[in-house]
What does this fold into?
Amino acid sequence: MHRPESLAFPPGFLWGAATAGHQTEGNNVNSDYWQREYAAGTTVPEPSGDACDSYHRYREDIALLADTGLDTYRFSLEWSRIEPEPGVFSRAEMDHYRRMVDACHEAGLTPMVTLNHFTVPRWMHADGWWRAPRAAELFARFTEAVLPVVREGVPWVCTINEPNIIACGAGAEEGGANLVAHGLARPSRRVSEELVRAHQLSREVLTAEGIKSGWSVATQAIHAEPGCEEEARAYSYPLEEFFLEAARGDDFVGVQAYTRTFVGREGALPPREDVEKTLTGWEYFPAALGFGVRNAWEVTGHVPVIVTENGIATADDDRRVDYTAEALAHLHQAIADGVTVHGYLHWSALDNYEWGRYAPTFGLIAVDRSTFARTVKPSAYWLGQVARANALPAPSSPVLTEGAA
Ligand code: BGC
It folds into this structure.
């Protein structure tokens, strides 16, 4: 059988890596998550502290990414820094983020900016978080305020990161337990609807300025246990398709994919005992990316996809390359089958604060926890090579096993 030399990606395809403010900047003392980290009796095992000190070291991060051969950097604005009190906008903080945009251009990277990556200012949390009266309008006002950061030279803006996971967080609160980590929380309908409204209002602000926008959805590669197809659909819709439907008419839809979820009679099941698991306890399942991209393309009615996150928490960097190579082969197959995909952004650029713990390392670049020294891992150079070639080389092109159809 003829074996192609490499799997080429479309011309102009974006290759990059992603981070988020609270996970990398350090000392986001005004954010709701910081408050939670230090609350009496907190369930957060480890606080974020200095994180990767990227607030000061972003130029180094950007330069290292550029050096590997990657061409795109997705990072987020920290709302709690920009709007420390309701309606009070910090010019200095906006200048900081604008400098990050400029630093990307100087290094030859395309910036992609996420307006909200999970955290909100303390005051907004105190007002009810995404249940605050007119939460969507607050987010639209924030979008308006940060236009100077994204108006020029930012081709893609992601309004809200993983609204479906935010809605599950709200659902867990309403259920009185923190079940998100086990994948058992159901999304809060009220918060889901408010997030859609927030996205729509934000998008109106961005579209009026000619800025292309979308939001990024945590796709779940839902698999039904035999005979549980109906349960799987009922589980999946409020978690995934509801948010993908809200992306219809957007300039792009962000797909984030890591693993799969099995659904049985009683709902989502934990990963099977006998499968390989990553440092987050998730099943090693690179085919998730193919499922996520195809589902997003279908449900949105063919909105172009950008893979805004995909990666693996592992201490074995060779395994990171295996995972990514297989995920990219599935992505390539989806493109060959007609899905429009504009780019692939790996999660994450750096080993960072994984919402409560530093141990699950997702980074292409290691960060020393006491000196903040960065060490570029072989996987980063490997992905940079793929970026330079705009193709996945044949020797590492794995045979597609599952999820290719
Ligand atoms: C989030 C990231 C997170 C990653 C790995 C996504 O849910 O957007 O903030 O670190 O997945 O858990």
Summary: Residues 20, 23, 161-162, 165, 218, 256, 309, 347, 354 surround beta-D-glucopyranose (CB under 6 Å).
